[in-house]
Amino acid sequence: MKILVTGAAGFIGFYTSKVLLNNGHSVVGLDNINDYYDVNLKYNRLKELGIDTNEASEFNKACQSKKDLSFSFVRMNLENREELPKLFENEKFDVVCNLAAQAGVRYSLENPESYVDSNLVGFLNLLECCRNFKIKHLVYASSSSVYGLNKKIPFSTSDNVDNPISLYAATKKSNELMAHTYSHLFKIPTTGLRFFTVYGPWGRPDMAMFLFTDAIVNNKPIKVFNYGKMERDFTYIDDIVEGVVRILEHPNKERIEKNDLYKVYNIGNNNSVKLLDFIKEIEINLGTEAEKNMMPIQPGDVERTWANVDDLIRDYNYKPNTSIASGVKAFVDWYKGYYK
């Protein structure tokens, strides 16, 4: 198939593009390369995909000239109403995997406008393109943050999610509602994936795994929120991408026949791990004990997440199997090599 992967320079988008290419698909990557975190990490992910440039200032030119049979890259904002439809018209995609978004719960308290632009306006623009260019399937990133202050554990897609506690979560819930509307009105198969705390090599520098490792290596204290009384369904990147790709590659014939066009799944490790146990694994792999600053919970954070993935197992035989011990070791090994 020919597949558009938005957010291709991002953590999950990079890995998804890589697996799709290995599986023989033609992939067009799209990303705006914003400076929410170190852009050099994004450039280096793209280099792994064959998009090479020596100077960031030459990046646009490099991307325009670099195109092979399987992977090409476009630098663009999703909210660009003039250029995105042109891309769809020129490339004639079969399916779309939308992993582009302004990420981060805490940053949404500081810069809410960027979440509206990317996650709402951009997503609407994408839906319109899927509608007008007869896309066979839209798979898009939602988030475990939509569960807000839900107390029932583990989180299930049948739970009520009407009480988000961050703007980021509200935009992700809005994406699900928008997708439902387009599935209903225009018969577009859409699948939303509520990701649960993704970690692994090439991960985002604003995530706990990266922040803790970086601080410990540089002999700085780590911030442990809610005084360590946090639990997360930490999910290794390979397990996440396996689920994403299985859904992208599924033909969906039975869904179309049954008019069952709108789906939302949890995608996680199906296990809740204490934050302090997670930190302990990092300490073991670095051979250093962290200096911990115990702090109160931050606005927008939830105390515990845990994904019920029974429906994903049933429909796609999805079985995450990476342990915290092996996942943390893989990240620390990558970090040591990347930063020498």
Textual characterization of the structure:
The chain is α/β, with parallel strands linked by helices. The chain has one domain (2-197, 235-270, 303-321): Rossmann fold (3-Layer(aba) Sandwich), CATH 3.40.50. It has 13 helices and 13 strands. The chain has helices spanning 11-22, 39-48, 59-65, 83-91, 107-110, 112-132, 167-186, 208-217, 237-249, 253-257, 275-286, 310-316, 324-338, and strands at 2-6, 26-31, 71-75, 95-98, 137-143, 190-195, 198-199, 222-225, 231-232, 235-236, 262-267, 273-274, 292-295. The chain has a seven-stranded parallel sheet with strand order 3-2-1-4-5-6-11, with helices on both faces. 44% of the residues are buried. Residues 55-59 and 64-68 have low confidence and may be disordered. This is NAD-dependent epimerase. It holds the Pfam family Epimerase.
Outline of this structure?
Keywords: NAD. By secondary structure, this protein is an alpha/beta fold. 43% of the residues lie in helices and 16% in strands.
Report how far apart the termini are: 38 Å
- Structural class by sheet pairing and helices: alpha/beta
Indicate the proportion of strand residues. Answer: 15-25%
* Largest pleated sheet: 7 strands, parallel
Question: What general form does the structure show?
Answer: globular
**Element order, helices and strands?**
EHEHHEHEHHEHEEHEEEHHEEHEHH
Question: CATH H-level name... which superfamily?
Answer: NAD(P)-binding Rossmann-like Domain
Radius of gyration from CA coordinates:
19 Å
**What is the count of distinct domains?**
1
Widest sheet: strand ordering: 3-2-1-4-5-6-11
CATH architecture, please? 3-Layer(aba) Sandwich
Q: What is the CATH class?
A: Alpha Beta
Helical percent range? 40-55%
- Please provide the count of β strands: 13
Give the uncertain stretches in residue-range form.
55-59, 64-68
User: How many helical stretches?
Assistant: 13
What's the overall average pLDDT, rounded? 92
Classify the fold: give the CATH topology.
Rossmann fold
